[in-house]
Design goal:
Helix content is about 35%, strand content about 15%. The protein is of the alpha/beta class. The radius of gyration is 19 Å and the shape is globular. The chain starts with a strand and ends with a helix.
């Protein structure tokens, strides 16, 4: 089997479990090298699980708790390797002007992108997965993650950028996680109704554009949904095991929407949309040979 290299770039500890986790687990199990980059330390996050023992935070800082949760999630998904860029979490701010100085979203772009470029040159991924331009939702760190990824890939490919001393590397394909496109919300809404449950997606669905374009890629990974859910539950401070993440019975979800969807941001190989595989159109051996 030809081994491909995939790099997932996420903003915070827990994002690797909520966006693309089943896809990552699938490619790991298929024998590919699947690497995680986490941009921030998660220290500005809020405890979102009402069942979490907040007394623990009297002795252990939240950043340490979230690092331990990340390690457990990584083991569950099976990432081949991980890199933590270590930038300070910016926290959630509706007004970008409120983002504190010195945090990830206020870091000079080429400083943060240069750190990612070093990872890209070291790992030489064929495929990179990041966030859409709007971050998927308007958290400052998610928007920054998109900017840092796209600029980091430019720097990694630029022979003039030689600060890390490694050879330039050009990525073949770049995707954005599209965790909840409208078609998935519709499917989960109907799955809940079909299971005799009240839909927790109805209000969300009503707020979405009916002419929203479909995903560019749908990766079938229902066999890995259990790993995804276990990775989510590893983030005990962030994920309520009885909360919204698990409001659709897994059997109903598999029947309704057994994929994880993606937007193709860039491709230097010929492919046909919609795709069923992030490696579509890619020959890793040929790409490596052309890049050396």
């Amino acid at each position: 089997m030809t081994v491909a290299r995939l790099l997932f770039v996420h903003a915070h500890p827990d994002d690797e479990a909520s966006k693309g986790a089943a896809t990552a687990a699938r490619y790991v199990d298929e024998g590919h090298r699947v690497v995680l980059v986490t941009c921030t330390d998660g220290a500005a996050g809020e405890v979102l699980n009402p069942r979490f023992d907040t007394g623990l935070l009297d002795a252990v800082p939240l950043a340490r708790v979230r690092a331990d949760e990340l390690a457990a999630s990584v083991r569950t998904i099976g990432f081949t390797a991980t890199h933590q860029l270590g930038f300070p979490d910016s926290g959630w701010h509706e007004d970008p002007a409120d983002v504190p100085a010195g945090t990830f979203a206020r870091t000079p772009l080429d400083v943060a992108a240069g750190a990612l470029a070093a990872v890209v040159r070291a790992e030489r991924p064929h495929v990179v997965v990041t966030y859409p331009e709007d971050g998927g939702y308007p958290h400052p760190d998610h928007i920054m993650t998109h900017l840092v990824t796209m600029r980091g890939l430019e720097l990694a490919a630029d022979p003039a950028h030689a600060a890390d001393g490694a050879a330039p590397w050009r990525v073949a394909k770049v995707y954005a996680c599209s965790a909840f496109p409208r078609e998935r919300i519709v499917a989960l809404h109907e799955a809940q109704l079909g299971a005799g449950l009240e839909s927790t997606h109805a209000e969300w669905l009503a707020s979405r554009r009916e002419d929203e374009p479909p995903p560019d890629a749908r990766v079938r990974c229902d066999a890995w949904f259990a790993r995804r859910d276990a990775a989510l539950r590893a983030h005990v401070s962030q994920v309520d095991p009885e909360g919204d993440w698990f409001d659709v019975p897994v059997d109903a979800e598999i029947a309704a929407y057994p994929w994880e969807p993606y937007q193709l941001l860039a491709s230097e190989v010929v492919t046909r949309l919609p795709e069923e595989d992030l490696l579509a159109g890619l020959d890793p051996v040929a790409w490596d040979a052309a890049s050396d």
